[in-house]
Amino acid sequence: ILLNELGFDKGFIIPLRERYLQPLTSLLYPDCGGRCLDSHKAFVVKYDMNEDLDLSYHYDNAEVTLNVSLGKEFTDGNLFFGDMRQVPVSATECTEIEHRVTEGLLHRGQHMHGALPISCGQRWNLIIWMRASQERNKLCPMCNRRPSLVEGDGFADGFTKHPEAQQNDSCALT
């Protein structure tokens, strides 16, 4: 569920990012854009016994991510974290973290992570991918190239138009 489509950006997500999260990310993640977060993508994910049970090892399309466990009743489904995405999987040890209802985890978007399967119930999570156009205009965090940009609605993928973009590379703005 994309929260901007339900009208949550202006009255909830933007003030949350600007007033409360950015002061934290400025202190915790200044080297990866935490000081200059200027857009986001916020959504809710659901894990259910008859649908998705887990989420495989991945990194986010974000400079910093907030993951809040919203609840329902569920068993298992802990999160696990490895190293940053540049570290080979063979050289990584993962750490399991219990993600308790009403608690949030703030982490770098490029930090590899996943969700183990729930064994019963239903789990909902609020995810906010926070983005810094100052960082991603230099290098797309998904394809590792300098982006060539096309117009998009809303925050798109957090890029802003700038004249030095190379025309032969492109990044999807969805």
Write down the Rg. Answer: 17 Å
Please report the number of helical segments. 2
Q: Structural class, from helix and strand content?
A: alpha+beta
Order of helices and strands: HEEEEEEEEEH
Keywords: Vitamin C
Domain Fe2OG dioxygenase: 38-132
InterPro entries: Oxoglu/Fe-dep_dioxygenase_dom
Protein name: 2-oxoglutarate and iron-dependent oxygenase domain-containing protein 2
Compose a concise summary of this entry.
The chain has 174 residues and is an alpha+beta fold. The protein has helices at 8-28, 133-136; strands spanning 39-48, 55-58, 64-71, 74-76, 79-84, 95-97, 104-108, 111-115, 118-131. The protein starts with 7 loop residues before the first helix and ends in a 38-residue tail after the last helix.
SSE blueprint:
Layout: H1 8-28, E1 39-48, E2 55-58, E3 64-71, E4 74-76, E5 79-84, E6 95-97, E7 104-108, E8 111-115, E9 118-131, H2 133-136
Antiparallel strand pairs: 1-9, 2-8, 3-7, 3-9, 4-9, 5-6, 5-8
Can you describe this structure?
- The protein has 174 residues and is an alpha+beta fold.
- It contains two helices and nine strands.
- The protein has helices at residues 8-28, 133-136; strands at residues 39-48, 55-58, 64-71, 74-76, 79-84, 95-97, 104-108, 111-115, 118-131.
- Strands 1, 3, 4, 7 and 9 form a five-stranded antiparallel beta sheet that branches.
- The longest helix has 21 residues, at 8-28.
- It is globular.
- Residues 38-132 form the Fe2OG dioxygenase domain.
- Keywords: Vitamin C.
- It comes from Goodea atripinnis.
- This is 2-oxoglutarate and iron-dependent oxygenase domain-containing protein 2.
- InterPro entries: Oxoglu/Fe-dep_dioxygenase_dom (IPR005123).
